[in-house]
């Protein structure tokens, strides 16, 4: 699902699921996931969509009703990074206006093959005002954090009280994330 929105939604509903070609210990795709946020269980229904251009028209149907979209690129693949802008334009056109978007630079474990610097991901994310994490589906680095941040944001939006301190997903992600240069993966 590189260069691709993966949709996380709290709604129930039918959607086709695609199986990942390998079974990483930390999976972005294909399952419902329950995340406990401050004692409240938030159910995320996760769909993986095809990244290739030829599936574009099909993918609109996936993310039209999504409450959150994880946009993944591969840090070892420049074209996947370059396609992110086009996806953001698409999302602007087809997704819900208040959709939660997160940019993820995946395969952070493959540092020797890296072609996209972490700063480039950060700059792009800042430009679009979305949170950014480098992740690894192989080691699990920042994967749980990505889902937790989305769940926290959705819970906050659903139950927003007048006197509740506002939840800032970008600040939360920045304060919690592990850097790929750091030695300790989860
Ligand atoms: N080392 C490493 N390999 C990964 C990681 N994530 C995925 N892969 C591998 O990358 C390959 C492609 O993974 P996919 O999930 O099929 O990639 P994709 O971009 O989703 O493909 P489409 O959904 O068809 O666009 C597989 O062989 C995975 O095992 C990661 O974080 N680290």
Automatic annotation (TrEMBL):
Superkingdom is Eukaryota
Alphabetical UniProt keywords:
GTP-binding, Lipoprotein, Nucleotide-binding, Prenylation
Q: Name one Pfam family in it.
A: Ras
Signal peptide positions (record): none
Give the CC-aspect GO terms. specific granule
Q: Which GO terms describe its molecular function?
A: GTP binding; GTPase activity
Q: Does the record carry Lipoprotein as a key word? A: yes
Could you tell me which InterPro entries the record lists for this protein? P-loop_NTPase, Small_GTP-bd, Small_GTPase
**Region (Disordered) spans which residues?**
1-27
Which PANTHER family does the record cross-reference, listed alphabetically?
PTHR47978
Question: Record's family?
Answer: Belongs to the small GTPase superfamily. Rab family.
Name of the protein: RAB37, member RAS onco family
What is the protein's species of origin? Answer: Piliocolobus tephrosceles (Ugandan red Colobus)
């Amino acid at each position: 699902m590189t260069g691709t929105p993966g949709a996380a939604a709290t709604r129930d509903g039918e959607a086709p699921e695609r199986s990942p070609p390998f079974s990483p210990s930390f999976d972005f795709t294909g399952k419902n996931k329950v995340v406990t946020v401050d004692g409240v269980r938030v159910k995320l229904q996760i769909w993986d969509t095809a990244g290739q251009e030829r599936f574009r028209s099909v993918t609109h149907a996936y993310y039209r009703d999504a409450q959150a979209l994880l946009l993944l690129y591969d840090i070892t693949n420049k074209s996947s990074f370059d396609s992110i802008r086009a996806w953001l334009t698409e999302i602007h056109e087809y997704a819900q206006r208040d959709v939660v978007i997160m940019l993820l630079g995946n395969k952070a474990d493959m540092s020797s093959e890296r072609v996209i610097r972490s700063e480039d991901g950060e700059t792009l994310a800042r430009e679009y005002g979305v949170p950014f994490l480098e992740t690894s589906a192989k080691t699990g680095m920042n994967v749980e954090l990505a889902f937790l941040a989305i769940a926290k944001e959705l819970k906050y939006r659903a139950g927003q009280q007048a006197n509740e301190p506002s939840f800032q997903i970008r600040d939360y992600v920045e304060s919690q994330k592990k850097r790929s240069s750091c030695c300790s993966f989860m």
